[in-house]
Amino acid sequence: MKGKGPTQNTFKKAKIREAIDGWLFSLPFVISALVFFIGPLIVAFLLSFKQYSFLDGSILDAEWVGFSNYIRAFKDPVFRKALLNTTIYAIGVVPTQLVIALALALVVNSKIKGKTFFRTAYYIPTITSTVAVAIMFMFLFKSDGVLNKFLGLFGVNPYTWYDNIYLALPLIMLMAIWSSIGLYMIIFLAGLQDIPDSLYEAASIDGASKWQQLIYITIPMLKPTIFFNLVVSLIGAYQIFDQAYVISDGNGGPLNSTMTVVLYLYKMGFDEFDMGYACAIGFILFVIIFILTLIQKKFFGEETKM
Length: 306
Description:
MetI-like fold; single chain; 306 residues; mainly alpha
């Protein structure tokens, strides 16, 4: 037993050294998370209960107003309009882009010629700057843009599409769908390639049609992928900012028809310097996204567990 003492001490020292090395390797991430994520999150949460502006000086001296900022948000007609616009945007964009992305994934996963080209072509808009895409769509739909010049060939007078309160938001939705389907297509494609070919072969032997294979094999096997894409897409939809900012020149016009929750948060925080109210809007948005994610998780149930 005495001979085991030095060995045990050496083993303990090695374990301690291993633990220290592990913490040292993870320290940069821990510090980054504290400085750039956890710390600002805590400060923002505290600010949501205060009346604070960047011009007021120290955060500690800001007036504590309790839930006033949250109550104000739900009484604010502009915030309610922004929340309605964002919800309409999400309802229109999320299912549309996922259905199109799945259809494209099925196409590029088939044995068609040139599928590598199509995969690249469909994915390119995803890696293009959102601001560049927004400017391109503004060029297409402005009064002297490509669409109006094309319609002019048929005698149609030029029209300022983004100045119409009923068309501005749908055009932004169209832009978002076009620019993002490539990302979800690639994820669906990865899910499709994980489905064993033997399932389709067995179904073909049993006489199942392509449609039946899609309904009873592809869709059920893709449920975890669909859930992932749905959550990511919904979060992205509720966080829409840059497209609305560029198209409306930062004011959410015309008549707040393109005002979104994040754009309004930005305006309150960095235009009006009402940071406490902006933080409250941010946490309201967080709660909405969290609840919607839980609902989706409940809907997909056990199928999402790997």
